[in-house]
Design brief:
heterodimer; A: alpha/beta; ABC transporter transmembrane region fold; B: alpha/beta; Rossmann fold
Chain lengths: 601, 340
């Protein structure tokens, strides 16, 4: 049992050990490998067979040879016994191997499917689900299903086969003695039921405590600088201590039941041996059974109790697996990102634009959370090849507009048209190919500079890549790096400056040569030289291309063909720099804000 | 490995039975021992198997335990951050005067210095803005004051005491630090704001929330200040998180308030309102403003411009603008929006 490996925010409360719906789901994944499962069942029957034959051989040895002084016969029995042992070893090894193979094969499929599914999920899903939790799904939860194969469901089925086999052999050897021996079974079942419920509850409490400890620890470590800064160490320790004590109590409870249960089962086993000796001994004296039968009975009862003792462990494995399945089912049920919608009219009648790259927002509404509208009916058109700057306060919805354009989200009402076509009717893949997005914080991958520009797209030749880098003047700093274009970028580009990352992102956008450029201008200040370089690169990038720029820099805004001022989810003003200044409204206020503050001081 | 070990254990038991039957059976057959002896012997042999096998497991888990112990020891052996006997226990109050003298410090040992021969003085009650490009060392200054980054003796002083002599708990009690990355705990907003208080009084928390411009948002939450944050509770916007973190810093009534770009996700107008509120509150405190918004920096009594770990300009915002140096250049380039 691997407690420690559970996720931090795990809802580690265990429920049922068997759920028909989840088992059907699980079977769906096992089905392709059912030949392996079948093989392991055959092997399990074989193992049970060679195991059950062993006490029988001892019986024969006693009755036919030992008591009759037949040494030669004993050699034969010994050989058969050896064969049974070798068979057991062989079948059991194979069985475990096949079982683990099945588990691994299923896990592989499941991980693949999960990852592929995650890649298709819409951005909204990732807003709701922290990365850590998703990682736990793909790793820990899947792993706990593996446990089912390694020591769970197949073994339980096999154990049942073995138990039935033992009962059958005992009844066949001597019905009356068998029935006397089985009188302990109801006692054992009652005890098992009694303990199972308590053990499960204790175990569940322990898991809950552990989950709380994990969560608290995670938070305390993540916020350690705050704990220290606010001198909260003592109280934080007291909180941790309380949870720790609760865990100890739960753990102790679990251990008490565990040890009591296994002692009680042991005791019942011994009781049954006593019964066999008491009743079987009388039957020997009366000649009803032989010595060998008695010895075989004792052996069989011992084998009978072994699987029962392990049942509680398997029960918890199954519980964990069911809980994991439940979460995986929920994850797989998440709706993937919408593809091309066919239920919508593709284009508006009357407006057939032959222009490449004309963008229209038609009364677009949007909210991330039900009661917090971000866009309240935004309408505007960007003619093909024009450069439009979006300005407004933080939270005005500028970034949201760029996300809607690439269909990371869909408008809650209204439409977005590209050359007169509703973008929801386009395959997201095709739509995104036509758009180049440069984010505020350009994301760089671990890999070479070249790979970061081309994103390993084979359609982009080395020459085109280098041309793009030259055009945005990124080549100067790239050539200064060790290895030039083959310089290794560290994770998230931590070895490059902000300005350099910006230039690389521009080169990337230019190399892909999109019809439409969406640019979220970086806000962090860079040195004047880099600043000038970025501005000239930007001019190059936007030339003749429909561009929507979420602008922060004055120079960018002033050079735009048009400026859209967003305020409270609406287009508040729309016009050129000169027009808007003349209007003397929000834009003029925004523009003068700085100057005003400065003169006040 | 599992695939061999488990069957091997089973076969070991079988082997012992085999030996008993083959050899013991012979002895019974020729009459050397009785059948009872044989049965008892077999049973004892069976009992012997399990402990033998278990020994292997025990040795195995011992080895794993030893590895774990070494790892734990590594953590336990790390020297804790203490006053190392250098704390001057007579220092119990600070007034908020800060002085840095010729400080050169780097984040990594022998690494490139984050601050270069930096000297500055901030008087008690003064509001000073630190500005400069990314990586110029602004946040490093903020890290030095709570001693998250250790400085050499004789370089940083508070009220004339060497910062390394001030007991950590005293030093930190007087600091209010609101970082840009506002980390909140999964508890109620009230508990988050009262994080640094021993016995929080309700009105203290409410005052701090009001001062941080959080009051309006509280009305929108299901349970006001008792609303849970994070998983199982509300998801706060970046600006709300930052304002909560600010309230957490303010509630302790700090003598030194460090705002490390701590209102970057709050829109300019709200930020200005909050700063107005802070200016008007009666509490006297030294304020260190680190901000990308130059409108914010311009509110300070004094601006210190850092570049590559050096203080390159210093003066009142007006004088710096007139001087036409880096600050003036940055202001000129600063966005219209004012939300860097």
């Amino acid at each position: 049992m691997k407690h420690g490996a559970r996720g931090v925010s795990e809802e580690s409360v265990l429920g049922k050990a068997y759920d028909a719906r989840l088992m059907r789901w699980l079977w769906g994944w096992v089905r392709p490998h059912r030949h392996l499962v079948g093989l392991s069942i055959v092997l399990f029957v074989a193992v049970s067979g060679v195991q059950l034959v062993q006490p029988y051989l001892v019986m024969v040895a006693i009755d036919r040879y030992m008591l009759r002084g037949n040494v030669a016969g004993l050699n034969l029995i010994a050989l058969l016994f050896l064969a049974a042992i070798l068979g057991e070893f062989l079948f059991r090894s194979l069985e475990i191997y096949v079982m683990e193979r099945t588990g691994q094969a299923v896990i592989l499929d499941l991980r693949r499917a999960l990852f592929a599914h995650l890649q298709r999920l819409p951005a909204r899903f990732f807003d709701r689900n922290p990365v850590g939790r998703l990682v736990t799904r793909v790793t820990t939860d899947v792993e706990s299903l593996n446990e089912v194969f390694a020591s769970g469901v197949v073994t339980v089925a096999g154990d049942l086969v073995k138990l039935l086999g033992i009962i059958g052999v005992m009844l066949w050897l001597d019905t009356r003695l068998a029935l006397v021996t089985f009188t302990v079974v109801p006692v054992m079942l009652a005890l098992s039921l009694f303990f199972r419920v308590r053990m499960r509850d204790a175990y569940r409490r322990m898991r809950l405590c552990l989950a709380r400890i994990n969560a608290t620890l995670h938070e305390a470590l993540a916020g350690m600088h705050l704990v220290q800064l606010f001198n909260r160490q003592d109280r934080q320790y007291a909180e941790f201590e309380e949870l720790n004590r609760a865990h100890l109590a739960a753990d102790t409870g679990s251990v008490i039941y565990d040890s009591l249960f296994s002692a009680v089962i042991e005791w019942v086993g011994t009781l049954s041996v006593a019964l066999i000796i008491w009743y079987g001994g009388r039957e020997i004296i009366s000649g009803a059974i032989t010595f060998g039968v008695l010895v075989a009975f004792i052996e069989y009862t011992q084998r009978f109790f072994q699987p029962i003792r392990e049942l509680s462990t398997k029960y918890t494995v199954m519980q964990a697996a069911m809980a994991s399945s439940e979460r995986l089912v929920a994850l797989m049920a998440e709706q993937p990102e919408a593809g091309a919608r066919t239920d919508l009219p593709a284009s508006i009648t009357g407006v057939t634009s032959s222009a490449r790259g004309e963008l229209t927002f038609e009364n677009v509404h949007f909210h991330y959370q039900e009661d917090e509208p971000v866009l309240n009916g935004v309408s505007f058109t960007v003619e093909a090849g024009r450069k439009v700057a979006l300005v407004g306060f933080t939270g005005a919805g500028k970034t949201t507009i760029s996300k809607l354009l690439v269909r990371l989200y869909e408008p809650t009402a209204g439409r977005i048209l590209l050359d007169g076509v509703d973008i929801r009717t386009l395959e997201p893949r095709n739509l995104r190919r036509r758009m180049g997005v440069v984010l505020q914080d350009s994301f760089l991958f671990r890999g070479t500079i070249a790979a970061n520009i081309t994103l390993d797209d084979p359609a982009i030749t080395r020459r085109r890549m280098e041309e793009a880098a030259c055009a945005v003047q990124a080549d100067r700093f790239i050539r200064d790096l060790s290895g030039g274009y083959d310089h290794q970028v560290q994770s998230r580009g931590s070895n490059l400056s902000t300005g350099q990352k910006q230039l690389l992102a521009f080169a990337r956008a230019l190399a892909f040569d999109p019809e439409i450029l969406i640019l979220d201008e970086a806000t962090s200040s860079v040195d004047p030289v880099t600043e000038r370089r970025i501005q000239s690169a930007l001019a190059k990038l936007t030339r003749g291309r429909t561009s929507l720029i979420i602008a922060h820099r004055l120079s960018t805004i002033v050079s735009a063909d048009r400026i859209l001022v967003l305020h409270q989810g609406l287009v508040h003003e729309d016009g050129t720099h000169a027009q808007l200044l003349a209007r003397d409204d929000l834009y003029a206020r925004l523009y003068r804000l700085q100057a005003g503050r400065e003169s006040r001081k | 490995m599992r695939g061999i070990l488990i069957p091997l254990m089973g076969s070991l038991g079988g082997m012992s039975s085999l030996m008993a039957v083959w050899f013991g059976g012979r002895l019974v057959a020729v009459g050397t021992i009785s059948l009872g002896d044989f049965v008892a012997f077999s049973a004892y042999l069976g009992m012997l198997i399990w402990p033998t096998v278990a020994m292997g497991w025990v040795i195995n888990s011992f080895q794993r335990g030893r590895v774990a112990m070494v790892r734990l020891q590594e953590i336990l052996d790390l020297p804790p951050e203490t006053d190392e006997g250098g704390g001057d226990m007579s220092i119990t109050e600070l007034h908020g005067e800060i002085e840095i003298r010729n400080l050169t410090v780097s984040h990594i040992e022998n690494g490139p210095p984050a601050l270069h021969n930096l000297s500055l003085r901030i008087g008690a009650g003064e509001t000073v803005a630190l500005v400069g490009p990314v990586g110029s060392g602004k946040s490093t200054v903020a890290e030095i004051l709570p001693r998250f980054l250790r400085v050499p003796d004789g370089t940083v002083f508070m009220d004339g005491h060497d910062i390394n002599r001030i007991p950590l708990s005293v030093l930190r009690r007087h600091l209010g630090y609101a970082p840009q990355e506002a980390f909140l705990f999964s508890r109620s907003l009230r508990d988050n704001i009262a994080f640094g208080l021993e016995n929080p009084a309700a009105d203290e928390v409410e005052r701090a929330a009001a001062l941080s411009g959080l009051s309006r948002d509280l009305d929108g939450f299901p349970a006001g200040l008792e609303t849970l944050v994070g998983e199982g509770g509300v998801t706060l916007s970046g600006g709300q998180r930052q304002r909560t973190a600010l309230a957490r810093a303010l509630v302790r009534g700090p003598r030194i308030l460090i705002l490390d770009d701590s209102l970057s996700s709050v829109d300019s107008e709200t930020e200005q309102q909050i700063l107005d509120g802070l200016e008007q509150s009666t509490q006297r405190r030294t304020t260190l403003l680190i901000s990308h918004r130059l409108t914010t920096a311009s509110r300070a009594d004094r601006v210190i411009v850092l570049d590559a770990g050096r203080a390159v300009e210093e003066g009142t915002p007006g004088s710096l603008l007139a001087q036409g140096g880096l600050f003036a250049e940055m202001c000129r380039r600063q966005e219209v929006e004012g939300s860097a």
